[in-house]
Fold this sequence. Notes:
Elements: H1 13-30, H2 40-65, H3 69-74, H4 81-89, E1 115-117, E2 122-125, E3 128-131, E4 136-138
Antiparallel strand pairs: 1-4, 2-3
Helix pairs in contact: 1-2
Amino acid sequence: MAIKIQNLSDLTALDVQQSQEFMTQLVQEQNPNVDVRRGVLHDLLFYYSGVLATANQTNIDRYRKSNNLKSIEADPTLADTDVVDNLLSNYRLTRRVGTTASGTITVIVSSLSTVTIPNGATFVASGKTFATTSAFLART
């Protein structure tokens, strides 16, 4: 699995505390005679069990969310290469290396003048930048 929590300090204190309390409750139910309120069990064992359980659950949640295209589109940070390739294989698709896009645009000249568009001129449309590959001359 490629999606992982890289730093345990990224976990929220509330989630860790809830996991710690859950671990404490499980041990208390199994062993009612053990004092789990304070000390080594509570402060070390249950705390770090809560930290690791929270990290594991966070990883599982992120991995589960990354198993559909809609979630990956909404949160591209889930788009790890291996995860996306595995997801696309469900639809018998494989990714190909991208190439330079090409096409034509229409420039509307509203005055009776000659317009020259130089090589390398850029146009921005829908947040994407396009550049000309050669010079163009427009006449009315």
